[in-house]
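Continuing the series of single-chain predictions for the mutant panel. This is the parent chain; the variants come on the following pages.
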Amino acid sequence: MTQSKKYDCQITKGNAGWTTKIIRQVSSKKTVVSKRQDGFSTESEAQEWGKEEMKGFLKNLNERNKRRSKPQE
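Parent structure:
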């Protein structure tokens, strides 16, 4: 899985199938779900979706941080 110090992907099995969550570490004790998708029939499908979404999520976050860090004129 793609891992970051602050972001991670979590896969769980429920009654309706597999669920993938992109979670953010807020503090040492608290995490928040940033993105969620459920209804996968297999664990491998859930893992694949998690990998792809994590890449896109971190890319968008990085671009947003670059835009926000530019000084205003």
